[in-house]
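Batch 3, record 17
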Amino acid sequence: MPILPNMPVLDLVKSFKLKTKQQELLIRVSILCLVYVLAFITRLFSVLRYESMIHEFDPYFNYRTTLYLTQNGFYDFWNWFDYESWYPLGRIVGGTLYPGLMVTAALIYRILHFLRFAVHIREVCVLTAPSVAGSYDNEGVAIFALLFTFYLFVKAVNTGSLAWSLASAFGYFYMVSAWGGYVFIINLIPLYVLVLLITGRYSMRLYVAYNCMYVLGMLLAMQIRFVGFQHVQSGEHMAAMGVFFLLQVFYFLDWVKHMLSDTKLFQAFLRITVTCAVAVGAIALGLGMLSGYISPWTGRFYSLLDPTYAKDHIPIIASVSEHQPTAWSSFMFDFHILLFLFPAGLYFCFKRLSDATIFIVMYGLTSMYFAGVMVRLILVATPAVCLVSAIAVSATVKNLTVLLRSKNKGVQTGSTKGSSSSKASSKALLDQSQPFQKNGAIALLFGAFYLLSKYATHCTWVTSEAYSSPSIVLAARGAHGSRVIFDDYREAYFWLRQNTPPDAKVMSWWDYGYQITAMGNRTVIVDNNTWNNTHIATVGRAMSSYEDEAIEIMRSLDVDYVLVVFGGVTGYSSDDINKFLWMVRIGGGVFPVIKEPDYLVNGEYRVDKGAAPKMLNCLMYKLCYYRFGEMLTEYGKPPGYDRARGVEIGNKDIKLEHLEEAFTTSNWIVRIYKVKPPNNRW
Amino acid sequence: MAREKSSKDNAQALFHSLRSAYAATPVNLKIIDLYVGFAVFTALIQVVYMASVGSFPFNSFLSGVLSCVGTAVLAVCLRIQVNKENKEFKDLPPERAFADFVLCNLVLHLVIMNFLG
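Prediction for the assembled complex:
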């Protein structure tokens, strides 16, 4: 009797008396548990290496609002007017944020406290993260809400039940409360309905699912003040409304057709109704757009359709690094093997089309397009790409294992004498015609296993190397390979907190606003919300002007301290001198007195002796390079050698007339200056 | 001349055949249709009122219109689920369909009450 490799396994399984369904459940649950554990662990790199703190810029605002929510309750949070940012305008926080993230974190905090786990709200915030512990940002709950809504909606379309549609409306509400990217849902779902209508897959279930979800979802979404009436007034949401009306017309016609027995009459009726409906719809839409009632697509979303729009018209949007188009290397870095598994998965999806696979194909294709336009949106594409690739992998593995198992069965039935089923003989024939098929299947399976394990390793490595750095603490390798930590940002903010009067106002570029209010606890002039372009342009103008003009602007804004970030001593390249041209562009966009060519020499941006005179004497240059001319930064280079730009600076002898240096951090990364009060008259 | 007459005949024939086909629908569906008609009519009255008086406060207008439109749409969904001619829903007991309808209406009106302002 030939020894079959499955024999001992079968014995073991039989001894446990598990049925196939239970085996499947066990395998599923254990795989999901392993996946969950791995996902949780990879996010902990930054907590292990540095400490449990909030990263980046936007999360600080989210953290501050969550703190406020847990301390003051929901009513105060919802009606909060923050006078500590955007001085002197203030900010209506309750009406200009997406509360989903904060409410989720506060809820988790409350539950944990109810269960008597006395955690600090900061720990809850650190662990509520999309990609790495500490980046406490909207995407953390938004991606979950997005997938949840999609899952519930597809379930509603499959079952046609009102209860599931209601659940998907609530899922949509959660998504709207979490992130501005909900516009993707409210455009993808109507597009999906349209595709189903066109391909003839419509049914009563589709009508029930979409209508209930749209009406209830729209109403729920309007409860968020930040969204307001956009669902009926903004051009980005009109597709959903158009499909809603189209569905009414379509199903009404279907119903009339069902009632009428005579097709000729129905054709006449059809013609009349369709022309009326199209005319009414076109007139309404035209009137709405012409009169300006329906606002056109806003800049943020229009730049997704036309990527060159922002660079020409809205410099603030163009300057954000997350909004740049994606380089192919980013795709390769983030997606690894999924890049070629995704088209394979698309093929498998098309092979067995159903309502659900049509949806995943549409989600995958649209999100891949948007991921190509803006780096940040890779996050939205990832679940779709993973799902589609998983379809490819699972279909391939299934085909291969069927091959393997059929070969074994063929050998088995061939070996037991007396079975003369045609199946056995045909399998035996198969066995003889392609003797290497089994080996090929085993080899391919091993290959697939190897690829997948390499993928998991790659993803862990990527998270560890590229995504686990809190931008607020910098690390580098010292001369002997030891790790050097630059904690200058927090040093500066805590200096501000402890050494300035509580009502001091700090002027800095908008990148640092959230961090200054959260950690330094001082009023700022502009911050990362960037809702007021003119205010930011005023600050940009102040930074780009000569000191005498700048002091006028600063006195009009009641500025007490100015904060700049300077990377010349450490070689840190995301400092204000490298961002300076954006300040010029944004300031020049509102105040034509600031002209970008004034700061360039032959179109080149320089800070050394050959730089433009306006550049050498503007406020930003002076504040960054004050006393830097005496500093020896690198062995063998003259004093005043800027390590980030790689040149010796042009203007070493800087005198400040209206400002005085208040604090410079130990590695010169953050420099704080105090605005001197006006001189006495005599 | 003949064309006009035939189109008028057409319209009349259309109307008659629709009427006779509709008369054959069961009573419970006709009640639902009546409810839908009432809701749409109420919505129309509100729109006419808004057109004459102005749309401030907009949230109240929207909540009024959307409550009518919402309950009409939910009633149509109920009608679809209860209608015996729809093969897809033959496994769904009408009590369940009505319970879903009531639940959705409850959520709808709670949100409307919050939005009314």
